Structure formats: C-alpha cells, structure tokens
C-alpha cells in the first residue's frame, strides 16, 4: 500500500509522510509499505534496483506502536545508499565459499557441542556476525540523521532503541556466553558495546554500564566506537568503517562488497 492508503488506518507522523515524498521525488521511484507477520525482525527494506517498480518496506504487524519510526528508519537506508553515484553503490554479501571458510575457522571452538549441531550453529554465528558488522554501525548513523530531520518521531525512536538495547544486553549474559563459541561471543559484544555507546550519546543515556565487569569487551568496544566516530559521513564512509570493523574483528574474509544491481533472483520475488 502507499503511505496515503496506510494513513487511512494508521497514524503516521506528517514529516514522515513528507520524507517518503522527498525520497520518491529525489530518486524516481515510489515506496510501497506492507505488513508481514512472517518477519523475524521489526522491519526490512528492499531498495529498488533498475528492474523494480518501487522500494518495498516490510513491517511486522506487532510493531505499529513505532510505525512512523520504522518507516523513517527504512527511508534512511534508501536515502543513504541512493544519494551516491550509481557506480559506487554496493552491498555486503557472504558467498557460500566465504561462509564455509568462516565455519572452518570456528571449528576448534565447536568441540563441546553435539556433532550434528556444529555446522548449523557455526553458519548461524558467522552470518550473524557479518550482519552485525555490516548493518549496526550504519544504523547508528541513520538514527543520528533522523534525529535531525524528523524530530517528531523522537519519542518513538527512543522507545524503539531502548527496547533494542534491552534485547542486545541479553547477549552479554553468562547464559549466552556458555552457549556460544568464545570468539563469537566476544566479537558480537564488542560491536554491541560500540552500538550502545553511540545510541546512548544520541539519547542522552549511558547504556554501557552492564559491560563494566567485562574489561576486554569495553576495551575492544571502545576501539570499534572510535573507528565509527572517525570515519567520514556518507555511504563511502560507512563502507570504510565497516571494513575497518571487519579487520579489527578478523572477519574481513567472511564477506565481500557486490555491485548494487548484482542481486540474486530471489531478491526480486514478491515485490
């Protein structure tokens, strides 16, 4: 549905409506919004390639209390990528051989797990770390941008980020440590620390206190935070600090940057 159709049944902040119009006008394609209860995350976006008629934002129907924020957040993803020249647009992808290599590097840490679960968990962890490294720091920058240009959604933004931080903090628990490969646990929490440090600055809070007993996480998390803060703004800066994060975490060979238009056929389904 279009944003105008959505407004007939849901309350959407007026400046989010304006943001959608601005992006559609600037980049030449409208934005379609759909609810999808099969999502395992609050929202996703398919940014339109040349052969697609529109951008597609999918939102879980259980997230309508932060609907304006989620729409604006995904609009930020579209704007951030499409504002640069077409030949410089790219996306992080993990090829099957890269994932196999990542799984092999984790094998020494899997011996305590049942043999039939090792490959499945290693793949889950490897793909999760790549997703974290290639998305989390960019999302922080989008949130900073939204804070400036869409002030009417700040309450929703605060509500969403605090909930997200609560979920993230569960990953630093001893129970999670016991169930996770040691290097995966540490890498994930290095990134979580940097994310919460930045989110806390944005919201005027300190969300890093739960890490105070984990000196290594604090130390390495601060390094990732400094990398993120020192990179230039814009998508090219995003690529720069994602690559530096990956190098710091020793996962640089687990993914590569593909040309924006070079997507698998599955990406174009159900658009």
Write the layout of secondary structure elements.
Elements: H1 3-6, H2 14-27, E1 31-35, E2 43-46, E3 55-59, H3 67-82, E4 90-93, H4 96-106, H5 115-149, H6 154-169, H7 174-179, H8 182-203, H9 215-230, H10 235-249, E5 256-259
Parallel strand pairs: 1-3
Antiparallel strand pairs: 2-3, 4-5
List keywords for this structure.
3-stranded mixed sheet; single chain; 10 helices; globular; 2 domains; mainly alpha; 271 residues; 8% strand
> How many individual domains?
2
Largest sheet: 3 strands, mixed
User: What fraction of the residues are assigned to beta strands by DSSP?
Assistant: 5-15%
Radius of gyration: 19 Å
Distance from N terminus to C terminus (CA atoms, Å) equals 12 Å
Number of strands: 5
Give, in order, the helices and strands: HHEEEHEHHHHHHHE
Q: What strand line-up does the widest sheet have?
A: 1-3-2
Shape: globular
Mean pLDDT equals: 92
Share of residues in helices? 55-70%
Name the structural class: mainly alpha
Spans with pLDDT under 50 lasting ≥5 residues? none
Q: How many helices?
A: 10
Mind explaining what this structure looks like?
This protein has helices at residues 3-6, 14-27, 67-82, 96-106, 115-149, 154-169, 174-179, 182-203, 215-230, 235-249, and strands spanning 31-35, 43-46, 55-59, 90-93, 256-259. With 271 residues, the chain is mainly α. The strands form two sheets. It has a three-stranded mixed sheet. Helix 3 crosses helix 6 (154-169), helix 5 (115-149) runs parallel beside helix 8 (182-203) and helix 9 runs antiparallel to helix 10 (235-249). The model has no long low-confidence stretch (mean pLDDT 92).
